[in-house]
Amino acid sequence: MYKADVEFLMIYIKEAHPADGWVKRSNERAGINIATHRHMDDRVAACTLAQSELNIEIPALVDGMDDAVAREYSAWPDRIYLIDKDGRVAIKADRGPRGFPPGVSRVQDWLETRFHE
Question: Cα-flanking dihedrals φ and ψ of residue 7, to 5°?
Fold first, then answer.
């Protein structure tokens, strides 16, 4: 709907619940078994798997092993940001996963006020 005016990207950061760390029962039940990323190849593979398994069609970028993006944007475990055309943060949703639904709503409202059809 907004593809001509807006670019959506996913930034994949470190695994929030690695199989060799803070394991969630829901991940075990779902068969999610991703170890802590030791190399960039591990992180890229995990990102590719997440996109495939979750049917995420937007392009993804992968945070480096230094976790610079996650630290700069306080993104762990996940968070929605909207960066305006001037490079300023227009929306910073609460951390996920609970921050996702209200964050998505705020982004939708922001887009609708600027790009209504």
Answer: -110, 125
- CA–CA distance from 8 to each of 11, 39, 80 (Å)? 10, 26, 11
Q: To which H or E segment does residue 10 belong?
A: strand 10-12
Ramachandran area for residue 55 (φ above 0: left; ψ -120 to 50: alpha; else beta): left
What's at 57, amino acid-wise? E
**What pTM does this model have?**
0.80
Instruction: Report the alpha-carbon distance of residue 62 to residue 45 in Å, rounded.
Output: 10
| DSSP letter string, 45-111 | HHHHHHHHHTT--S-EEE--TT-HHHHHTT-SS---EEE-TTS-EEEEPPSTTTTHHHHHHHHHHHH
Q: Could you report the per-residue pLDDT of 75-88, keeping only the tens digit for each?
A: 877 788 989 889 89
